[in-house]
## 1
Amino acid sequence: MRISFNVEAFKNLSRKQVETMYAGNERALKKALEIFEQLHPADVEKKVNIKPKTKKK
Amino acid sequence: MNCNTQICKCGDFSGVFFGQENCIAPVGFTRRLAFMPLLDAAGNRNFIDFGNGGTIATMDDTFFDNLTRVVSNDKKLYISPRIENPEYAPQDDDVEEFDSGRKIVLGQNGTEWTVLLVGDDASFGSLSQAKNLKCGQWGMFEIDSYGNLIGDASQSSAFKLYPIPLDGLQINFERKKKTASQRITIKFNIDSDYEEANTYFIPCSLMSVNLVTLPAIQLLSMKKTTGTSDTTTAIHVTLMTNIPANLGQTPIVGLSHTDFTATKEDGTSATIASVTENPDGVYVLNGTYVSGEDTTINLNYKGHVAPPLVAPIP
């Protein structure tokens, strides 16, 4: 399998779009998310900073 | 435009000055032909525009790629493979001779050309393409052995060279014989209205491309991959050589996302995010496509063309 990515196009995609696009192709999804995260560092940060929900006592 | 009924016009006499600058070399022998439709889809004369705002354009790889591949088919320059045994037979003018011996020239006749495509260049694929020359009105440029591009300069337009109008195009095919290779014979006449004295050329010294060796454009087959469904994120195409399936059709391998373009119904570009090839010649174009609309996929692969593929997105 050969795959070529249009890195420029990833600037205008959302994470959800990337995940949908490569659903079922793990290898491509992994690479696509790498490209996406390089282009959208804020998105990665946001993901890391999500606090786990805690149940109110 | 020359008029058949007048060989020259009264009052037009401007001398016959044969003295020329020594540095302008005569052209070489014909090595290839380049055909161009005489008229574009709007009915205007086609031409090669080698001007760029009053100066000579850069005639590089991009210039000829645009002319031979990118522009629409009605304006393309179709460069033949190498030709063999070119024969030019100028036809005598039509003359009426009277009993006194006086002769009156009634009109001129064009030169009759015969050229051969031989060996690999005379394949059935080449034959099917050459046959297309029998449809529509065509003109031609010559490419000589130096790479000069020879055409019609009669329109007095700066930096424009027009195809020389042809008529009576005949295409014949001969199978290989014990003493002769397989061949396609192309015969045509230079239109009798064309004044050959208007022939001129774009010198190869102005080009950074060698037209003698520039590859001819190959037609490919681009089809929807069987057994697949296109979606808003994936279009499936199969790219093969353009010969009948099961007769040695081979896949076109190694293309990337730059070799395809996707266009929405409103004419704007759709994004192709990646191109995956698996197996050879079978491509998935991942991108963002509009649901309920047709997306048109065009090939943008240098040296090759394929009819566009319309993918209806559910």
Note: The first strand of chain A starts at residue 2 and ends at 5.
## 2
Amino acid sequence: MTDDLGTHLRSAAAAAAARSVRPPVTAIRRRLVRRRVATGSAVVLVAAVVVAGATALEPRSSLRPTGPASLSATATRTPYASPSATPAAAALPTIVASRGDETEDQPLVFLSPVTGRVLRSMHVGLGDQPLGHPWISYDRSTIYFVRVTTSCSTEIVSVPSRGGPDVIVANGYAPRVSRDGRRLAYLEPADACSDKSVLVVRDLGTGTERRWNAGAGEDIVDLDWAPDSTHLAVIRQVPRPSAEATSGIGSAGYFDNELWILDTQAPGASIDTGHQVPGVKGWCDAVTYRGPEGTLVVLALPGHGDYPSVLSEIDPDTGHTKEVVRFPHPVNDFDYDASGQHLIYVWNDTLYRWVDGRSVRLAGGINSAAW
Amino acid sequence: MTDDASFDAFYARAYALVVGQAYLLVGDLGEAQDVAQEAFLRALARWRFVRTLEDPTGWTRRVAINLAISRWRRHRNALTAWRRRADPDTAAGPGADRVDIVDALRGLPPRQRAVIVLHHMNDLSVADVARELGVPEGTVKSDLSRGRASLSRALADTRI
């Protein structure tokens, strides 16, 4: 009986397979590269006030308390309003975004945070190379982004925010510049066509670099600088047997996601030398330090592939997690403004702003955005 | 063989198995193709790890299974895709007996369907199915029994 059923099932599966046209393997490779570009968190925390319609990005220094907060400040947060609070439209900075559609130029665009209207475009692509991971330096003078170079590699490029020649900074992705502007952290693929990554921190003054591997983990997923410009929050994936994993299936099978705080001034060449925030963080794939106080926030799926995505604050000492936003769908990319009060995110090539506890669509054709 | 070449060969060899299984799980060829492509994308993302496994195809099939299950969880209230009566593709359809088994599967609740496919098509043991789905073994046995009975009634075929 059961043999017959198995035969029936295999026959039906084979028939379906015969009707399915196998996409070329290059399509799979391209999707992987595009996802790598698009799903990293744009985590710059900027504080400029840019009136909608402005064509230049104003420095944030006049708008935010100066002086980096200490790492310990992340554990004793200053209360703040819900991110759903209605923003004063004129006080919101211009959004920098990369276009997700394969247009000829793949420009970076500057968008109104209120209407989503394109205020300015910057043509920085080469042919149809996808762009992603836009990231703005703390003084808003420089935009970093990621450009796909081949089916298996990406490069980090910088360009002045007012326009000018673009400069290839490194081979890698997920660029993050410290708030003091002195260090660039990014992820560098360990090998071509592998997304097992190495964390690199480059001193932008001297050009010297340090590297950290994933240690006991399989991969490093995302990172962000603490307000002190010395510590990095890092998400890494750790492979587990299916029966033990609490995060469910990740990008590489059964994984748990861990959040680590790494002191970049301390010796060591592995994430293991850092401090692990207690607990497993579900299927989290993005981390940011939010607002001037640097509240640690992660973007995660609750577990085992359940949707929607949620944003949660995490106490770095205790690992205590507090959900702050539950989105109506998965989220690929998010960013808070410098105040930590206002939130944008990207899902399905569409840019949204989170207003009064609901999603407001701003623009389509966007794969990643920064504030 | 380079990593690139070995993945290409693996993809060509295993695609039909993965998409076929996904079809039985999600009930729609378009969705099955999405699930299969996502599973292969994840295999590619960790190909240096996956290629060292004894059974890379099995790993990818497991990923596809979990993706399919995740989709059910995302669409708890919708069996619409599963209950669609026609596939969107224009290629020649399957034979009548295959339509019967697929239609019969469509009539099963998602978990029973998964239990049937995992156990009978993928040859997973009851314990493995229970672990995959996160349910007690007794539940798997119950679902197997009820699922087979439902299929028998639907197909009016005493061979099953």
Note: Chain B touches chain A through 61 residues (CB under 8 Å).
